[in-house]
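Hey, I'm writing a tutorial for new members on how sequence and structure tokens pair up, and I'd like a real worked example in the thread rather than a made-up one. If someone can provide the structure for the chain below, I'll link this post from the tutorial.
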Amino acid sequence: MSSGPSVEEAVPVREDLVAVYRDVLAAHTDSPTLKVCVSCLRSRCDDWRWAYERLTAAGRLPDGVTDDGPALPTDEEE
């Protein structure tokens, strides 16, 4: 039997780390123009994904952020 948190149970994360993970999400969010991270030039770069996964496990993901990242304008909206 596992002693870790269950699938539905949030993993505790210190507040200072939550702030760091949210900063990473913001810094590595895909540009609406380029549709990639401007630091890494990759969509959903490893840094973004790493921070996203930790915030999700902690139940601390900011509103409006999904696995696809923040909503990007479609070609029709641009």
